[in-house]
Amino acid sequence: MSLSMVLLLISCDAARGQTPPLSAQDTIRLDTSLVVIDARIVDRRTGQFISGLKSDDFILSDDGVRQEITHFSQDSLNLSVILLLDLSGSVSPVLQEIRSGALGALSRLRKTDEVALMAFSSKTRLVQEFTRDRGLIIDRIREIEKTPVIGQGTSLFQAISDAATHMELAGGNRSNRRVIITITDNVAWDYNFAGLTTQEVSRRVIDSDSMVCGLIVEGALTRTEKIFLRNRAGQDIYRRRMTIDPFIDLSGGELIRANPGLISSQLATLVDHLRSRYSFGYTPKRESVDDRYHQISLRLSDEARRRLGDLLIRTRQGYRIASKGKVK
After folding, report:
1. How many Cβ atoms from other residues are within 10 Å of residue 100's Cβ?
2. Over the stretch 78-117, which tens digit does the pLDDT of each residue have?
3. Partners of residue 258 on adjacent β-strands
4. What is the rounded CA–CA span in Å between residue 86 and residue 326?
5. What is the β-pairing status of strands 278-282 and 71-74?
6. 65-66 and 71-74: which strand pairing?
7. What distance lies between CA 5 and its chain's CA centroid?
8. Cα–Cα distance, 134 to 151 (Å, whole number)
């Protein structure tokens, strides 16, 4: 579909007062000014997913200016998923459980979804390029079990940055929803003033249009490490703690915790949650394109809040438009 056709469809549907659904076949990102976000919406008290919502139930703002939602759907876009495996001391022993969990979780994806596999410790390695062959991903995880060490330490920030960069360069169709699922103990250290900063990694996540999710593996070693951290809080001026939390918050992702016995079910739950998210598309109301970060706000309308009560909405906090006019 050409850019002119996309714009014509948008203008015609807007004139009829309708909100057309998002679809991968429309390749909506051909309109480089179109911003596409997705959101998970649950009951704040029960955590239950809320289905059956409509675009009129939401108010979407860009830098404080309310926007017209021109595209709206639930689970209509394909996924490009990077499984990012932490090979640190507390995660490597449960690689078999992770493989079993991945087998069940990947079966929940569509045939048109694509998956890549990366692993990291002190370095990051691309284990498998994007593929729709689920069995190939499982085989690659089995190979990692045999030779799990790719360096010492846990360079978490560098790994997320590398995954985001790979997603941008080789992430298949730009209309896909892009997700980095990091399986980690979420305990990583770096020397102060060394390595990537939170801001640098955040920019790369934004530029890749990715959502970061985390499956936190909690074993005995992880609990011991956390006790050690509490006892040394504020004492270590030479090292800094790294976690995936800021990138999950920034991109509107999700964090789920699991002990080794629950990895399989929790990873499947995380994939199910990805498939239940709503997608929104809009063209920002502004006079010019600029290379800066734009803040997004998504909330319920007053009428929807009265009808539905207190809901939790998780979506990315913003985006950046590069100098050539490409939405990031």
Report:
1. 16
2. 999 999 998 877 677 788 888 888 988 999 999 999 999 9
3. 217
4. 32
5. antiparallel
6. unpaired
7. 30
8. 27
Report if pTM > 0.70.
yes
Phi, then psi, of 85 in degrees rounded to 5: -100, 125
HEC profile of 148-215: CCCCCCCCHHHHHHHHHHHHHHHCCCCCCEEEEEEEECCCEEEECCCCCCHHHHHHHHHHCCEEEEEE
Give tens-digit pLDDT for 54-86. Answer: 999 999 999 999 999 999 998 888 999 999 998
Query: Which residue, 198, 110, 192, is CA-closest to 161?
Result: 198
Instruction: Collapse the DSSP code of 59 into the 3-class scheme (helix H, G, I; strand E, B; otherwise coil) and give the result.
Output: strand
Q: Do 78 and 177 meet the contact criterion of CB atoms below 8 Å apart?
A: yes
- Strand-pair partners of 58: 300
Token pair of 221, please? 């070693």
Is 53 exposed, middle or buried (CB count within 10 Å of its CB: 0-12, 13-18, 19+)?
Answer: middle
Q: CA–CA separation, 131 vs 137, rounded Å?
A: 8
- Residues with Cβ < 8 Å from 59, sequence gap 6 or more? 66, 297, 298, 299, 300, 301
b/e per residue, 158-185, with b = 16+ CB within 10 A? bbbbbbbbbbbeebbebbbbbbbbbbbb
